[in-house]
Amino acid sequence: MIVVAGESLIDLVPQHPEDPLGPLAPRPGGGPYNTAVALGRLGSGAAFCSRVSADGFGEALLGGLRAAGVDTSLVQRGPEPTTLAVATLGPDGSAGYGFYADGTADRLFTLPPQLPPGTTALALGTCSLVLEPGATAYEALLRRESSRGLLTLLDPNIRPALIPDPDAYRARFRGWLPYVSLLKLSEDDARWLGGTPEEWLAAGPAAVVVTRGSSGLTAYTADGAVHAVAAERVEVVDTIGAGDTVNAALLHHVPSLSALATADWPRVLRYAAKAAALTCAREGAQPPTSAQLELPT
């Protein structure tokens, strides 16, 4: 079982990106939510751990998890509204976001007493590790489960508009690294955070995966090896959910510390690159199924 902890929200996606007052289409979203759905579609046993609103958007979010086969027994419910993220799309399909998150359900998450028996991995990231008071609870979950021997994946997925004190966040990020097994981040995240894969590896993770958009993915491992693969070429509709799909693809192949220690990184990265490409070829976060990702042996 892979537990994904963090926010779910509704992305409001412009239907005509060139028109700032054009219609917005609501789509299920949030980095951890997308990761959990992607894991379910890939056939990995996954559970979502969060606090979800009892409003209509919250019900739709839970419906999406269940449709993907994701366990929702760890989901807390509350009367607070669902977080909204208004997306803006660039000419190349890249997405930026503005957030409406004050007083919303997901930031009131509290630490669960335990994770289900058989859990082998925990994934966290994005807004959930920024917005208090929930951020402190998610951080406690990371530290507790890492100490119990679970594989932990961290995707910081930086949203600068939500971070009032960048230096304090960077220091907090460095404090998480001893509890992280697999760090995955984009080139933009890496640039914003500062540091290098070698520095991050020295702080604790066994592997660091950097996504480089149309330039592909690179994995750096604690033994000094570097593995890189090219991106799959597709007609990009938008990049919403692509990085979250990479998280799921990585965890699908390395769902435990023992699997991480023996990972075939070129194959894992090719799988992740194909998964991300298929997501980019669709509107919104619509990760592929396992049948769409068969790789030749």
Task: Walk me through the structure.
The protein has helices spanning 31-42, 56-67, 134-147, 166-176, 187-193, 197-203, 242-253, 257-261, 265-280, and strands spanning 2-5, 9-14, 24-29, 46-49, 51-53, 76-78, 84-89, 95-100, 121-125, 151-155, 182-186, 207-211, 217-221, 226-229. It has 297 residues and is an alpha/beta fold. The protein has an eight-stranded mixed sheet, with helices on both faces. The chain has a four-stranded mixed sheet with strand order 3-2-7-8. The chain has a two-stranded parallel ribbon with strand order 5-6. 46% of the residues are buried.
Question: What topology emerges from the helices and strands here?
Answer:
Layout: E1 2-5, E2 9-14, E3 24-29, H1 31-42, E4 46-49, E5 51-53, H2 56-67, E6 76-78, E7 84-89, E8 95-100, E9 121-125, H3 134-147, E10 151-155, H4 166-176, E11 182-186, H5 187-193, H6 197-203, E12 207-211, E13 217-221, E14 226-229, H7 242-253, H8 257-261, H9 265-280
Parallel strand pairs: 1-4, 1-9, 2-7, 5-6, 9-10, 10-11, 11-12
Antiparallel strand pairs: 2-3, 7-8, 12-13, 13-14
Helix pairs in contact: 1-7, 7-9
Instruction: Please state roughly what percent of the residues sit in beta strands, choosing from under 5%, 5-15%, 15-25%, 25-35%, 35-45% or over 45%.
Output: 15-25%
SSE succession: EEEHEEHEEEEHEHEHHEEEHHH
Output the radius of gyration.
18 Å
Number of helices: 9
Q: State the major sheet.
A: 8 strands, mixed
Biggest sheet: strand arrangement: 4-1-9-10-11-12-13-14
Distance between the termini: 26 Å
**Mean pLDDT value:** 91
- Shape descriptor reads globular
Amount of helix: 25-40%
Number of strands: 14
Low-confidence stretches: none
Return the structural class.
alpha/beta
